[in-house]
Amino acid sequence: MQEEPEVLYPDPGLWTKTSLIQLFYGIMVNLTSVTFGIAFSFSSVMMPQLSKVDPKIITTMTEETLIVSVLPFSTMIGNVISGFLMDTYGRRKALILCEVPMIIGWILIGFAKTPVELIIGRLIVGLGCGMGMIPPRAYVTEISLPNMRGVNGSFPSVGIALGVILQDFAVASLLALCEL
Asked: How do residues 95-151 score in pLDDT, each as one tens digit?
């Protein structure tokens, strides 16, 4: 049995034009991960607002638990849907399609007047989060040269952390402005 020869790609280095282009694409494709960080940290900001003395939406403890826990649950379902979308339509179209439930879910959350509307909005956002977690990694590893896969592969985690930071910073800033 004949052994396949190992293909060695020339290492263009990190600061070449080719590597910088791939780095740019890696960052752009993984910007969807920022929205996941925002979605996951949103409940830590929203729950104190629902518990204050005169909330706009009155919730029970069970509803608050559902508001927080429905997002990770629906994320798992979105992951499975994502695999189907990638196999059917390709990685790039799956990236675009994952934003549709994110937009619909955030609109529902933004205009929610009842706890049920918040739960449904979080459920839909969770589907979008799950649908969007896999395609960026698959797409970036397919378009990257071997010397850039590690760097580009780290961006989803960086994006999620950045989303959490942005969410918490934005809310802290708004609360500080409201106190003035």
From this structure: 889 889 999 999 999 899 889 999 999 999 999 999 988 888 888 888 888 878 888
Q: Write down the pTM of the prediction.
A: 0.81
Provide the Cα torsion 85, 73, 140, 150; round to 10°.
Answer: -150
Residue 13: which region, alpha, beta or left (left: phi > 0; alpha: psi -120 to 50)? Answer: left
Cβ-contact 106, 121 below 8 angstroms: yes
CB distance 70 to 126 below 8 Å: yes
Rounded Cα distance, 128 and 68, in Å: 16
Find out whether 139 and 29 touch, Cβ atoms under 8 Å: yes
Q: How many helices (H) and strands (E) does the chain have?
A: 8, 0
Q: CA–CA separation, 66 vs 74, rounded Å?
A: 12
- Amino acid 134 reads I
